[in-house]
């Protein structure tokens, strides 16, 4: 079993339930953990046998830019896209953080984690 972790992915997007959030936008940070059987690429040393995390990153970045009200919805869409395009994934975890959320006080971030 191999684990690929994409850490510190940064985005500017327009997710949120408040109208202002969908107009002004906010900074988001994402962590992605992908687990798959890497026996073949370990043996062959051929990139075509490995999970292409550059392609995964590009597809995640495109999906995160689609506006949603809820972090849950964004994470679920990303998981759906990953499983649809990378059948070798056995388990995936997505953590999406909204930096400086508008909650009426000082808060660094709020995060949601989904796994499948």
Notes on the structure:
By secondary structure, the protein is α+β, with helices and mostly antiparallel strands. The chain has one domain (2-115): 2-Layer Sandwich (GTP Cyclohydrolase I, domain 2). It is built from four helices and four strands, in the order E-H-E-H-H-H-E-E. The protein has helices spanning 19-24, 39-44, 53-64, 71-85; strands at 2-13, 26-36, 89-99, 109-115. It has a four-stranded antiparallel beta sheet. Helix 3 (53-64) packs antiparallel against helix 4.
Summarize the structure.
By secondary structure, this protein is an alpha+beta fold.
What is the residue-averaged pLDDT?
Answer: 95
User: In this structure, how is the largest beta sheet organized?
Assistant: 4 strands, antiparallel
- Which superfamily, in CATH terms, is the homologous superfamily? GTP cyclohydrolase I, C-terminal domain/NADPH-dependent 7-cyano-7-deazaguanine reductase, N-terminal domain
C-alpha Rg, in Å? 16 Å
Sketch the topology as an H/E string, one letter per element: EHEHHHEE
| Global structural class | alpha+beta
Query: Portion of residues in helices?
Result: 25-40%
Query: How many distinct domains?
Result: 1
Distance between the termini: 16 Å
- pLDDT below 50 for ≥5 consecutive residues: which ranges? none
Major beta sheet, strand line-up: 1-2-3-4
Number of helices: 4
**What is the beta-strand fraction?**
35-45%
Would you give the CATH topology?
GTP Cyclohydrolase I, domain 2
């Amino acid at each position: 079993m191999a684990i690929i972790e994409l850490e510190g992915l940064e985005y500017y997007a327009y997710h949120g339930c408040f109208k202002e959030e969908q107009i002004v936008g906010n900074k988001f940070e994402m962590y992605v953990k992908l687990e798959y059987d890497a026996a073949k690429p370990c043996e062959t040393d051929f990139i075509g046998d490995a999970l292409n995390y550059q392609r995964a990153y590009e597809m995640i970045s495109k999906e995160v830019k689609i506006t949603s009200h809820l972090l849950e919805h964004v994470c679920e869409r990303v998981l759906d896209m990953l499983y649809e395009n990378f059948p070798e994934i056995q388990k995936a975890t997505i953590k999406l953080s909204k930096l400086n959320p508008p909650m009426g006080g000082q808060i660094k971030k709020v995060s949601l984690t989904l796994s499948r």
